[in-house]
């Protein structure tokens, strides 16, 4: 069934003959994979009462008139491609083999001035804020294959990376003094965005499945208006959560979505670890079909009313230096997002788009992309297993606890500070004392040659940290060094508690 669907997409991919490949903004419907539609779907609800409306850039709008006419331009300030110092770009990407594997050999892909699909002279010039149409078409097909959105007027556009996209989204919806809902531990740049934009993070308690829907409902149902307007934006990292590593079950996501429906929340689904499946059996790569079956149920796939903004990233699955991701939401939200992009980050880098398109659409195709995602999941599964084995061997279990991640890149080690000999029985530590224990272990680990990350850096509400924790990642260090690093970290933790015994009253 998958192969038949992919074949039909390949046949339908040819774009209408236009003067420029950048047709995504002017005619987004041509990018939708209508061949996969089987029934009528409802329209998304409007968020106009919440959105900070913005008109498209006047200069961008004027430049767009050149794409479909023979008009001579004396108006736009685009450089003449004749004076670009590059005539072609060549990138060598890993070769996708028929059995789903990827060897060491590479496939060269080139882009030159005057090329039909991707004209380098256009790629190197000012681009469409939504991205080049060919690449958006591939990404839109990918979104439809994976998530199958339940409403009609969904759209996908490219982003200049998730952090840039989040900054834009918060500016679109949130005013200074507003409050935004987060997991109690969350991605630190979002908290830094909150500080810069002067809105207030509200942390929602988590458990081993992530954000607790009953807690979300309790906070909203009992909201004190003296704190400001009731929050209507929820930011969540549902798969391989950073920093805890936990993944929300389908049942948990359904429950959270129902709370969002009840309280009319907008959900920002930031899911960069969605594709990194961590299997217990790290000896065999999953087929593309099996890999797709094991992916989590996304909020986008549950969304019936257009209240989810989904963010995907190439940073964890291709390369962070591309600075490209994609956003999927209702047409209304995407239109305003693109207008905001035009006067901020402007547009995704053209050479990065060429690299993505040539690799994903021309070389690998959807099947090859799925095989690549399965391949890197296998690689990271092996690393995860090595790290967990090292933790079980070298960390003091009376002090340390963790949840083995099934997606993502991280494992959070929680420290039972009540076992710290400097803590008196039944004593409740203040945040400052907890942070002091965490800080000493962090600094001593660095002295011992191991870099870890403080869990307190991820606190949504930084003034009330109630636990000490350190985040470990298994993806960056050489595999042979993972056990050595965990052993040194374990000695550091043990040493802190033994040191405390010598100074305890």
Automatic annotation (TrEMBL):
<dbReference type="InterPro" id="IPR015421">
    <property type="entry name" value="PyrdxlP-dep_Trfase_major"/>
</dbReference>
<keyword id="KW-0032">Aminotransferase</keyword>
<dbReference type="GO" id="GO:0009074">
    <property type="term" value="P:aromatic amino acid family catabolic process"/>
</dbReference>
<dbReference type="InterPro" id="IPR050859">
    <property type="entry name" value="Class-I_PLP-dep_aminotransf"/>
</dbReference>
<comment type="similarity">
    <text>Belongs to the class-I pyridoxal-phosphate-dependent aminotransferase family.</text>
</comment>
<dbReference type="GO" id="GO:0047536">
    <property type="term" value="F:2-aminoadipate transaminase activity"/>
</dbReference>
<dbReference type="InterPro" id="IPR015424">
    <property type="entry name" value="PyrdxlP-dep_Trfase"/>
</dbReference>
<dbReference type="GO" id="GO:0030170">
    <property type="term" value="F:pyridoxal phosphate binding"/>
</dbReference>
<protein>
    <submittedName>
        <fullName>Aromatic amino acid aminotransferase</fullName>
    </submittedName>
</protein>
<feature type="compositionally biased region" description="Polar residues">
    <location>
        <begin position="19"/>
        <end position="28"/>
    </location>
</feature>
<keyword id="KW-0663">Pyridoxal phosphate</keyword>
<feature type="domain" description="Aminotransferase class I/classII large">
    <location>
        <begin position="117"/>
        <end position="489"/>
    </location>
</feature>
<dbReference type="GO" id="GO:0019878">
    <property type="term" value="P:lysine biosynthetic process via aminoadipic acid"/>
</dbReference>
<feature type="region of interest" description="Disordered">
    <location>
        <begin position="16"/>
        <end position="47"/>
    </location>
</feature>
<dbReference type="GO" id="GO:0008793">
    <property type="term" value="F:aromatic-amino-acid transaminase activity"/>
</dbReference>
<dbReference type="GO" id="GO:0006571">
    <property type="term" value="P:tyrosine biosynthetic process"/>
</dbReference>
<dbReference type="InterPro" id="IPR004839">
    <property type="entry name" value="Aminotransferase_I/II_large"/>
</dbReference>
<feature type="compositionally biased region" description="Basic and acidic residues">
    <location>
        <begin position="31"/>
        <end position="42"/>
    </location>
</feature>
<keyword id="KW-0808">Transferase</keyword>
<dbReference type="Pfam" id="PF00155">
    <property type="entry name" value="Aminotran_1_2"/>
</dbReference>
């Amino acid at each position: 069934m998958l192969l038949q669907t992919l074949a039909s997409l390949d046949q339908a991919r040819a774009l209408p003959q236009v003067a420029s490949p950048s047709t995504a903004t002017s005619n987004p419907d041509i990018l939708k994979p209508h061949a996969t539609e089987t029934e009528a779907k409802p329209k998304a609800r409007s968020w106009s009462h919440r959105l900070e409306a913005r008109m498209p850039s006047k200069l961008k709008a004027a430049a767009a008139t050149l794409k479909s006419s023979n008009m001579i331009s004396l108006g736009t300030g685009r450089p003449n491609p004749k004076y670009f110092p590059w005539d072609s770009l060549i990138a060598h990407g890993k070769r996708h083999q028929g059995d789903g594997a990827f060897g060491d050999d590479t496939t060269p892909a080139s882009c030159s001035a005057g090329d039909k699909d991707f004209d380098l002279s256009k790629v190197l010039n000012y681009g469409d804020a939504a991205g080049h149409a060919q690449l958006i078409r591939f990404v839109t097909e990918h979104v439809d294959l994976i998530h199958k959105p339940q409403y009609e007027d969904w759209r996908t556009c490219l982003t200049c990376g998730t952090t840039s996209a989040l900054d834009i989204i918060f500016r679109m919806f949130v005013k200074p003094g507003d409050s935004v809902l987060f997991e109690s531990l969350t991605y630190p740049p979002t908290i830094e965005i909150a500080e810069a934009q002067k809105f207030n993070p509200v942390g929602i308690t988590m458990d081993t499945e992530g954000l607790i829907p009953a807690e979300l409902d309790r906070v909203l149902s009992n909201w004190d208006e003296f704190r400001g307007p009731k929050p209507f934006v929820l930011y969540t990292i549902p798969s391989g959560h950073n920093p805890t590593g936990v993944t929300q079950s389908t049942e948990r996501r359904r429950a959270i979505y129902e709370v969002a429906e009840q309280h009319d929340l907008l959900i920002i689904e930031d899911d960069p670890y969605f594709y990194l499946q961590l299997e217990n059996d790290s000896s065999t790569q999953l087929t593309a079909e099996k890999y797709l079956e094991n992916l989590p149920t996304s909020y986008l796939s549950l969304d019936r009313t257009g209240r989810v903004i989904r963010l995907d990233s190439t940073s964890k699955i291709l390369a962070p230096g591309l600075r490209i991701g994609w956003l999927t939401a209702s047409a209304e939200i995407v239109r305003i997002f693109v207008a905001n992009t035009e006067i901020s980050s402007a547009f995704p880098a053209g050479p990065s788009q060429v690299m993505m398109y040539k690799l994903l659409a021309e070389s690998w195709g959807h099947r090859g992309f799925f095989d690549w995602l399965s391949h890197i999941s296998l690689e990271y599964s092996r690393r995860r297993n090595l790290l967990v084995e090292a933790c079980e061997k070298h960390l003091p279990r009376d002090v340390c606890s963790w949840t083995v991640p099934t997606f993502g890149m991280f494992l959070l080690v929680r420290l039972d500070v009540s076992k710290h000999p400097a803590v008196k029985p039944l004593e409740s530590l203040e945040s400052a004392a907890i942070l002091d224990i965490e800080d000493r272990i962090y600094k001593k680990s660095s002295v011992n040659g191991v870099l870890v990350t403080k869990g307190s850096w991820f606190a949504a509400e930084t003034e009330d940290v109630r636990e000490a924790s350190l985040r470990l990642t298994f993806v960056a260090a050489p595999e042979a060094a993972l056990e050595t690093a965990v052993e040194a970290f374990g000695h550091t933790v043990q040493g802190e508690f033994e040191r405390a015994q010598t100074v305890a009253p």
